[in-house]
């Protein structure tokens, strides 16, 4: 997929809405060769998805060995709205707490007092974190109105040819 095609998909209003959500599902291949899919908070900076994790996270050796990842960001209503992204993860070890981590956790409902306590706890627990920066290499938006999963699109095309 060309970069301008990816940008066009990610710039659609529904994609921008999904990219503003709190959670994505990160899929990667574990060191033992088996697939993993985990929910994780994220932020979109306009060109990259940024995830943050602990420096001792079990996913890090896997991502170092195989940086290919897939992300799913979706809704919980029918019909679902689904943004699928593939990319490569780049790991960036940082001292302290990345600003993205504080941003991505900023939409949870907390009083200002709870927020201050949460940030104090986070800063006392982590001496640093790892930013997992994902540059999209492929993207597809499925809204079940204008776009469908490719297998369903194929069935609809075949049906139209039969009926046609």
UniProtKB/TrEMBL annotation:
Keyword Oxidoreductase recorded: yes
Keywords: Oxidoreductase
Residue span, Pyridoxamine 5'-phosphate oxidase N-terminal domain: 20-102
Keyword Oxidoreductase among record annotations: yes
Pfam families in the record: PNPOx_N (PF01243)
InterPro entries: F420H2_bilvrd_red/Heme_oxyg, Pyridox_Oxase_N, Split_barrel_FMN-bd
Name of the protein in its database record: Pyridoxamine 5'-phosphate oxidase family protein
